[in-house]
Amino acid sequence: MLTIQNLYKKFGSLVAVNNLSLAVAPGETVVIMGPSGCGKSTTIRTINRLIEPDSGSIVFDGRDITQLREDELRKVRKRIGYVFQHFNLINRLSAIENVMLGLVMGGQAKEEAYDKALAAMTKVGMEQLQDHKPEQLSGGQQQRVGIARALAFEPELMLWDEPTASLDPMLVREVLVVMEELAKYRAATMLVVTHEIAFALHVADRIVLMEKGTVVESGIPSQVFVNPASHVGRQYKELIE
Ligand code: ADP
Ligand code: MG
């Protein structure tokens, strides 16, 4: 479904992503872990070209995203959902209006957008609170609206960049539960950057460990965390024990 090969990205003289290769199979949930600054966000963001890579290829559904024209890229972006650390909901809109907004901007009729938004809100257990404004919701609820906003497009691939990192510890679980459900029902292929080790251990089909801009280890959780081959892997193993 997604094959990244020999990806490079520099910021000035700093090499953020260094010859990274990574493949994700359809329906798979892959968790990317690694120390802060190792290039996780940069990698994730090149996939929908929020960041333009310097070189390398990113093949999604048979086409190299790095080679797409602007109009083709727009179409591909609709098939790739994106959930960030900061949910950036629009405060004057209700929760469901936030979910509808992208659909309506994309040219869908309001009724159709509402139906899709409601279905997405139901998937994240937020349908009862659809008319609340973001400020009336907890951080965890706001992030669930952020997830619904991505789900409303029925994306084939979902990219997650530390979706629980800005939440109070008490609110992390409700978001992880939603993510786990999506992974379990293979609602989309998922590429997840997170520091939540328990989530990685129990939900990931495969864990990819990064260090200094590249993949240093990849495998099923029991292998990576129990018998790690990399320095980063051994550090995670110590954390678990
Ligand atoms: P991670 O998500 O793993 O914490 P990032 O991909 O955000 O790491 O960053 C990788 C490296 O690139 C870091 O050293 C970071 O400081 C640097 N970096 C990221 N974005 C930019 C940018 N827009 N300009 C300059 N340096 C950046
Ligand atoms: Mg990051």
TrEMBL record:
GO annotations of cellular component type: plasma membrane
Gene3D superfamilies: P-loop containing nucleotide triphosphate hydrolases
Molecular-function annotations in GO: ABC-type amino acid transporter activity; ATP binding; ATP hydrolysis activity
Membrane-topology descriptor: Peripheral membrane protein
Signal peptide boundaries: none
Principal location class: membrane
Pfam families from the UniProt entry: ABC_tran (PF00005)
Keywords: Amino-acid transport, ATP-binding, Cell membrane, Membrane, Nucleotide-binding, Transport
Cell compartments where the protein resides: Cell membrane
Domain ABC transporter: 2-237
Family: Belongs to the ABC transporter superfamily.
Protein name: Glutamine transport ATP-binding protein GlnQ (TC 3.A.1.3.2)
Species of the source: Sporomusa ovata
